[in-house]
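Worked Example 4.2. Read the sequence first, then its structure tokens.
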Amino acid sequence: MVPLIQRRMTGQIAGMAGAYGNVGGVIFLTIFAMVSPSSFFLIIASSSLLGILICCFLAEPKGHITEIAEDGSVQLIEVG
């Protein structure tokens, strides 16, 4: 889950999310090498349930987000 923080940083944040996805893949591959396949799938299921549970407690932004452009102008972005 990747939030919209600033529009000009969208590409950087998407790149970091992809890179950390690869790190997660290496971690799960390492775990797979150390445990049996049945327990590995239980680990994947429990980690996905934990992720869903954490996402349920996230608060969505309301109102407007302010963004300062490079020229110094301020934009209000409506979030709804």
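Now turn to a second chain, presented in exactly the same format:
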Amino acid sequence: MNEKSLGQRIIYYRKMAGMRQNELAAQIGITSSSLNYYEKDKREPNVSTLIKLAKVLNITGDRLLGIDRPESSAHDANELSLLRNCRQLNDLGIQKLLQYATDLIGNSAYKK
């Protein structure tokens, strides 16, 4: 992912979070057209906007900027998919998902 432009990384992580452009823009307090310019690499977001993007997308600033190190606690595609799905659940669904995870971890057939 590091060879991608900032705009491409924003698109990638927005889609991994299951968000539309207008949803992400609203959550970080900018217009959809501003986000569109960032995603097309026509403009660069300021530091405050970069911080908001990273927080809403649940990634590190380093990851967003493409300077993360391999040994960092970076999310792989499966982890991001789980996170995206988890965000769609209510509190009861989250508790059920956590119970499933605990049950799977307790079964040696599913552990690494």
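Notes for the reader: The chain has two domains: 1-71, 76-112. The mean pLDDT is 87.
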